[in-house]
Amino acid sequence: xxxxxxxxxLTSTGIWHRVLKDKYLPHTTIKNWFRSHTFQQKANSRIWxxxxxxxxxxxxxxxxxxxxxxxxALGKDMILGMGGNFLLSLxxxxxxxxxxxxxxxxxMRHYDIQHLSSTWLNNNDLGFTxxxxxxxxxxxxxxxxxxxxxxxxxxxxxxxGGDNSIFATVKKLYWAILSTKNLRKFGGxxxxx
Length: 193
What we know:
Number of helices: 9
Order of helices and strands: HHHHHEHHHEH
Number of strands: 2
Strand content: under 5%
Strand order of the largest sheet: 1-2
């Protein structure tokens, strides 16, 4: 239930949830707090302490539905449908930054605000060879396979606990935790937290 409450704090605009955000995350946005993975463990209150004890239960299944992609940091933000394939090595991030590609929106061939295309840049476009080309192609294929496409909308934090719904309920969280325990028991794995 604490994990479900934390999900609501992250995604809701209700007064109580805004009070918690303003009190415990005053100098950052939810997006930056979530991206940092340095979740505050030392609690100033029993309520926030309880929420922080449950943070590991939900971050495992959260991703960004990218919207226009302009605020999604390439290789750092979990993208809906990509699983652990959103991560990029420091070498390729550095090579992308040299080419002025920092966000998902800049990873496209053509960017037209009227018609958001999702033709992802490939190695020929970027001039990558060797290991960089292999990693970049793996990332481009994962983007394509995820069905990620950009649209003229805001990014949204989504629950991806097995059914890609936007809402995390106590029941869905419970079943997601059970499925992960079963996967670990039989040698499977989930994406990194």
